[in-house]
């Protein structure tokens, strides 16, 4: 059961909560779900186009969306000093106008806020982005995984498992490689597991990255 279901969905309502908070009738559920995805993509595209970091690191942990009748509140959790932090007021206003223009919202307002993550390398999404940049720069996958695990050990995590699948290092036959440090009890529903899945495009093809981070366990 450990790897046959999404660890986040498996723990919803116990140790995990949703990243979107709203209510909708069944016939409008899919439309609201697609709207959330478009909002997140719009924000990530804006950061990708306007970031001023040479490394190309976005550093977005996750994006929370809270919807009311006439207001949509978006909270962006970031880990590094990127374009969103350098001039928050100006960037937030421009980002809000871009989102409102994209959705042609007349009767609904958008409110965007930014929250800094204290220990960014404790977030699997940021860690996956770091590994992806290393692999794109032709760094050995073993070296990239070991460095990612070292960065995670600086946080308060109790265990981490990283897995890469695909044509690793350009080999003809696709395979799966993984590393683990500490405990990662995926079968225990009390265990607070943070998980992220991402894909990256390299000159050899598409690689998949999975990261499990064991934070702590509820008594």
TrEMBL record:
> Taxonomically, which superkingdom?
Eukaryota
Question: Which CDD domains has this protein been placed in?
Answer: KH-II_30S_S3
Gene Ontology process terms (BP): translation
Q: Which SUPFAM superfamilies match?
A: Prokaryotic type KH domain (KH-domain type II), Ribosomal protein S3 C-terminal domain
User: DNA damage: is it a keyword of this entry?
Assistant: no
What are the GO MF terms of this UniProt record? RNA binding; structural constituent of ribosome
Cell compartments where the protein resides: Plastid, Chloroplast
Which GO cellular component terms are attached?
Answer: chloroplast; cytosolic small ribosomal subunit
Its main localization is plastid
Instruction: Show where the Small ribosomal subunit protein uS3 C-terminal domain sits.
Output: 131-213
InterPro entries annotated for this entry?
Answer: KH_dom-like_a/b (IPR015946), KH_sf_prok-type (IPR009019), Ribosomal_S3_C_sf (IPR036419), Ribosomal_uS3 (IPR057258), Ribosomal_uS3_bac-typ (IPR005704), Ribosomal_uS3_C (IPR001351), Ribosomal_uS3_CS (IPR018280)
* Gene3D superfamilies, per the entry: 3.30.300.20, Ribosomal protein S3, C-terminal domain (3.30.1140.32)
Alphabetized, the UniProt keywords read:
Chloroplast, Plastid, Ribonucleoprotein, Ribosomal protein
Q: How does it assemble?
A: Part of the 30S ribosomal subunit.
Q: Which family does it belong to?
A: Belongs to the universal ribosomal protein uS3 family.
Name the HAMAP family on file: Ribosomal_uS3_B (MF_01309_B)
What's the protein name? Small ribosomal subunit protein uS3c
Origin species: Eriocaulon decemflorum
Lineage, uppermost ranks: Eukaryota, Viridiplantae, Streptophyta, Embryophyta, Tracheophyta
């Amino acid at each position: 059961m450990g790897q046959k279901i999404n660890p986040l969905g498996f723990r919803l309502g116990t140790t995990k909560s949703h990243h979107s908070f709203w209510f909708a009738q069944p016939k409008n559920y899919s439309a609201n779900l697609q709207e959330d995805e478009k909002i997140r993509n719009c924000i990530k595209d804006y950061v990708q186009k306007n970031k001023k970091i040479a490394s190309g690191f976005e550093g977005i942990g996750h994006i929370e969306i809270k919807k009311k009748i006439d207001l949509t509140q978006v909270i962006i959790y970031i880990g590094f000093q990127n374009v969103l932090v350098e001039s928050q007021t100006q960037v937030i206003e421009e980002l809000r106008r871009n989102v409102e223009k994209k959705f042609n919202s007349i009767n609904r307002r958008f409110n965007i806020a930014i929250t800094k993550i204290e220990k960014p390398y404790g977030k699997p999404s940021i860690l996956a982005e770091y590994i992806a940049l290393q692999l794109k720069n032709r760094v050995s996958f073993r070296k990239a995984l070991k460095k990612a695990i070292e960065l995670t050990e600086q946080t308060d995590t109790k265990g981490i498992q990283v897995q890469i699948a695909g044509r690793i290092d350009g080999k003809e036959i696709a395979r799966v490689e993984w590393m683990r440090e500490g405990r990662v009890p995926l079968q225990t529903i009390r265990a607070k597991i943070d998980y992220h899945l991402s894909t990256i495009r390299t000159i050899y093809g598409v690689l998949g990255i999975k990261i499990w981070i064991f934070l702590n366990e509820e008594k």
